[in-house]
Design a protein that fits this description.
- The chain has a single domain, classed as Amino acid/polyamine transporter I (Up-down Bundle).
- The protein is built from 19 helices and 2 strands.
- It has a two-stranded antiparallel ribbon.
- Strand 1 and strand 2 form a beta hairpin.
- The chain is globular.
Amino acid sequence: MATAPAALAAIDVVPGAVASNAMPPVAAGLADTCSPTPMVTVPLAGPSVRLHPPAMPRPPAAAPEPPHAVPQLARRLGAFDATMLVMGGIVGAGIFANPSVVARAVGSPGMILLAWSLGGLVALAGAFVYAELAVWRPQVGGQYVYLRDAFHPGVAFLYGWTLLLVVQTGSMAAAAMIFAAYFRELTGLAASPAAIAVVTLAILTAVNCLGARAGGTVQNGFMVTKIVAILALVTLGWLALRGGAAPTASAVAPAEGRAPLLALAAAMVPVLFAYGGWQTASFVSGELRDPSRDLPRGLLFGVIGVVGLYLAVNVVCLVVLGAAGLAATDTPASDVMQLALGPIGARLLAAVIAISTVGFLSQSMLTAPRVYFAMARDGLFFRPVGAVHPRTRAPVVAIALQGVMASVIALSGAYDAILSYVVAMDAVFFGLTGAALLVFRARERRGTASRPATGARMPGHPYTTVVFTLAFWLLALSTIVQFPRSAGMGVVIMLAGIPAYLLWRRAAAASGAQA
């Protein structure tokens, strides 16, 4: 899509409304010339005759938005917001614990860093895939729209269905409970973790109902704080080493008897889980000022930034703790901070994790509801979920739905079970989204579809896109084989969306026939 001029980029265009009340210079000059209508006296032989030139019509005045116009989402976010959303969707609490999980799987420092580097390359490939898809389809809903237009509305519906019931909501409930636990530890508050989690979700729901700009500002603040905190962790780790804190163990940790390739494959599960989340920024495409430009930039800059942060954390953990020490602990970041600052270090890390988890919640509350909104606008979900508040221009019903669902799961305590379904379901739809790019490019070659001349393109396509797609489908298959019960439940929940889709499609068809 051609980039709009900078002067127009910040204008929110609403159907039925005029963007500006200012009259164009030519029209303004015409109005000055024609109004009021002059009366001209023409001298003739005899009594003078007054001629009235015919009145020229005034240019129509800019009409206010009619009261019955349907409010639309407002484009109030830019490239920096997109970058912070990408990073905020990826960086949660996992990076503070997953390095030890990877160390136990592969053992040696070289293999540990190789696993995290490969995960970073996969994430970067995903960023390029989604960046090009954002050029093809810059509409609200992002990944949902890519799947809908590449394959079938039913495939997109199943994605939104699993997002609401499993992937996003389960992750949010778990993050809310983690935040609650650390918040209690830091403040000594006597309230139950579930109550703290629900109150936190309610506050973030209310903030995001104030509009994308309000939610984006809060999210940006959390993400910048997370970046500073992670950089502080890395810096303090190096200072601890220079101050004489020796690694707790320097021997190479065992790889649990696996062949190196199988060990690396096992390590990639927590690595890819830690890198997951960049795709959620695509959900707000409809609220980016220039989605074809801002989203690709946000995806690429955001993923590169996260890869740098993750590799830095793993390097400092290896240098300070050693490979065996890293494999032996469940709290590697806490151990590094304690070596650097003593007992106060662990308390500071608790604050960092609390900020990181609530930042993830903020990002999720801003992004995920846009998928349910897009589903409702397509007639495939409850109609009120597609409503936009006329003043804040936010999908308030969709946001409230997400907050309520996450709160219910947090109160039920079922989030641990739901989280075990997440990896397989995420991997299935990541692979499908990579395949969506193959479909769009094939249509372009056949001449049945065209994309804007400018914008991001996937380097090395189709080979890199095929590798990305197959990597995630293999991950899904591996997860199902290793954890058949949990992954199987995720598949059951996804397939339960098929009759739901058929019901909504029938209702939408009946509604259209009546109209």
